[in-house]
Structure formats: C-alpha cells, structure tokens
Amino acid sequence: MCDAPKTADLLAWYDRHARVLPWRVSPADRANGVVPDPYAVWMSEIMLQQTTVAAVRDYFTRFLALWPTVQDLAGAEDERVMGEWAGLGYYARARNLLKCAREVTAMGGFPSTRDGLQSLPGIGPYTSAAISAIAYDLPETVVDGNVERVMSRIFEVTTPLPDSKAELTELAQTLTPQERAGDYAQAVMDLGATICTPKSPGCGICPWNRDCLARKADIQAELPRKKPKAKKPTRYGVAYLACNEAGEWLVERRPEKGLLGGMLGWPGAEWGEDAIEHPPFNANWQDPGVEVRHTFTHFHLRLSLRVVHVEGKVQAEQGLFRDVQRTDLPTVMRKAYDVAIAHLPH
Q1: For 37-55, what is each residue's pLDDT tens digit?
Q2: Burial of 296 (0-12, 13-18, 19+ CB in 10 A)
Q3: Could you tell me the pTM of the whole model?
Q4: Span 104-157, pLDDT tens digits
Q5: Whole-number Cα distances in Å, 155 to 170, 203, 209, 263
Q6: Is 45 a catalytic residue?
Q7: What is the CA radius of gyration of the chain?
Q8: Where are the domains of the chain?
Q9: Same fold? 7-222, 234-343
Q10: Is the distance from CB of 307 to CB of 344 less than 8 angstroms?
C-alpha cells in the first residue's frame, strides 16, 4: 500500500511549474501578498465551465479590457455582452454573468463565503468552491475533470464515471490543505492538465508518482473509466434570412429560457426530427443550396436556409427588421449570415 500523497510535494512542484494564465496570481506573487481579484476569478471560472483554457484566454482578456470591474459589467448592454460572448457557447452562462454582476454590484461586492457565492446566479457547487479557494484561500475542495482524473489514478478508483464522482470528491477532500488552499486547488488542476493527462500521462515527472496506486498497478492510462456516451441525435431546421433595402435584417429574439436564450436569431420553426417550412411572410424565398451544420452539447443541427431581398415594407409573422451586426449573433446564426451575405444581391 502506498503512502497518501503529500500536499507539500505538489505545492513545491506548483511553485516551480505553475501555468501562466491571465486570470491567475502566480504562487510567487501570492507569497508576496498579492491578493487575487474575486471578479477576475469569477469571470474565468464562469468562462471555463465546459470550455477549455485555450478557448477562454482571448475572451477573458477582451472582457476584462471592455469591463475592468464588476460594476462596469453590470452597466453593460445585454446585447453587447451576448455578442462578445458569441463563440464560447452555453449562452445561459452569459445571461447569468450579467445577472450575477448586477446582484454583486447591488450588494457592494462579492460574498466571501461559499454559501454566499452559491446563492448568486450561475454559481453552483463547483464554481463556489473554486472562487472560495482561489480568491479567498478558503479550504474548499475543488473538483473538475482534471482533478477527477488525478484522484482516480492516485487512489486507483476503477468504478466508471459518473458513478465514481462522489467517491472521487471524498478522496479529494482528504488531501485539501487548510493553508494555501487556493494554490493547492490550482496545482491539482495544473497537474491534470499538464502531466496527468488523459492519454500518455507523464508519470516520470509527476510529483506524486511514488504514491500513485494506478501507476503501481500499471493501469494509469486506463483511468478514469467512463460509461459509454450515448450517440448524439441530429435535429433539422429551416432558417429564413431576409434583408431589406435599408440593409436591415429580419431577426427575432429567442425566448429567455432554452437554447441560445435571449439571443438574436433568424425566424423559423423549432428544430426537430424534420425540417419544417414556416416562412415569416410570403416571398420568393431562395434556397442557396448550402446547409449550415453546427454541434451543440446534446445534438447535431443541420439547418437549411432560405434567403430573400425585399423591397418596400412587409408584414412579418415573426421578428422585426433592424440593423444587425454579425457580432450580435451566436455562432450558428453567424454561419447562416455568412451564407446569406454571399448569396443576396448587394
């Protein structure tokens, strides 16, 4: 039986090898009294939900340049924020980002307890633990996919995910230190991201390699085990893109709840097993012969397009004509816009 891994070994490794991230206070700066900004920590954690570090870097930098404080973000126009968020996906996060910023501003600042943080829009158990540990150095246990992988290997947990989630969290709690909790939380995530990787883990340079039960059993590359994922279904739809003489586009705002909630989109029927024709008004709609394909979390979308350039006023069943910038649209709607621009007369 191996000894339990030592927190000190991991922290010593982190002090030398911590990733440089735009939202992170380095261990050296933190040791010198530099305190993380809860706003930056919160922003990064919301953006990182279901998204990679590589995808988030530029978004985070741009958001902090546009809205340097939570008060600045609270005063921003919803449409501008949603437009800047486009491409990151999971748009409910952007809606909750604004709601949370406005609540925090009304409160006079971020709560400094996990319970207080978790009462805010868009902050669940994981995010509240991460902000508590990283921003306030509280000894909260932070468990993301990287941490689950590290724990499954260190303790040789062979039960497949997601069934092993509770066990992995309990094991992670046994290692969470009372001091330097923020550095420790980031160290475990860095370990999983850079050494204890999904494929070909770098066990030879791991600070916990002597204590890893999976390595001792030579099954580290097999863990964590996961239940097979269900195949994503495919949905179909038709989007109608109409531009008038003034260069305005017919758009509608999607319902607040649901996929792409609160964002601008093109009129059309709900996406389903069949592509249902439901034009917003009678016109000589043209099929550009280009299908837009996009993948969401739970399904693939195949979107047929209909485009038309209208003269004079029309009465649309759905949406309103308005000036629309490409940046106002979520990614799938931008794809459709690009096709329409290429096929409509200028």
Answers
A1: 999 999 999 999 988 999 9
A2: middle
A3: 0.82
A4: 999 999 999 999 999 999 999 999 999 999 999 999 999 999 999 999 999 999
A5: 11, 15, 12, 44
A6: yes
A7: 24
A8: 7-222, 234-343
A9: no
A10: yes
What pLDDT score does 31 carry?
Answer: 92
Domain 7-222 has CATH 1.10.340.30: yes
Other beta carbons within 10 Å of 24: 19
Distance, in Å, from the CA atom of 282 to the CA atom of 275, rounded to the nearest integer, reads 18
How far apart CA 149 and CA 141 sit, in angstroms, is 15
For 155-222, the three-class secondary structure string (H helix, E strand, C coil) is CCCCCCECCCHHHHHHHHHHHCCCCCHHHHHHHHHHHHHHCCCCCCCCHHHCCCHHHCHHHHCCCHHH
**Residues 50 and 297 sit within 8 Å (Cβ to Cβ):** yes
Share of the chain above pLDDT 70, in %: 99
Q: Which of 37, 22, 11, 29 is nearest to 181 (CA)?
A: 11
Q: Which CATH number fits domain 234-343: 3.30.1390.10, 3.90.226.10, 3.90.79.10, 3.90.180.10?
A: 3.90.79.10
